Amino acid sequence: xxxxxDESFRxxxxxxxxxxxxxxxxxxLAPLHGRxxxxxxxxxxxxxxxxxxxxxxxxxxxVLKHLRVAQITLxxxxxxxxxxxxxxWAGMTAPPAALFAxxxxxxxxxxxxxxxxxxxxxxxxxxxxxxxxDGPAQTQFPAIRWRADKVVLARSTGRxxxxxxxxxxxx
Length: 171
What we know:
alpha+beta, Cyclic Phosphodiesterase, Chain: A, four-stranded antiparallel sheet, 3 helices, 19% helix, 39% strand, globular
């Protein structure tokens, strides 16, 4: 149980691209307006935990260590929009089953450790490119292949001019 004086962090688990992959994703940001995600902060969220007490960090890092992380090939090939939130994203026409299995394993591990967070009814894998933007409803482009093999626990540290993230642990 968290103590009253615990600092809290806005946390999430994500697949983090290598620098070459994030460089290939960067041109997708060029035509967008709004609060763009920095190249170094592009990622694919597996589970958003929201505000969590710092005393929970050892448990959350432990979850990461026990994940079975295998290399997954992602083919980022389309842009989309979450109109209600005004978020433009990059995603996949056909996300691989291994990605859904990894996300499910993570959510189950969090549940076993009684970590409270808001679970999505349906997992929709995507890379947030920009917020407060009116991007394309759906646009396809030649696939950017990403050999994903790094899962991280990260925290959000800022919102302006765009989000900023710190990696706290990786596996």
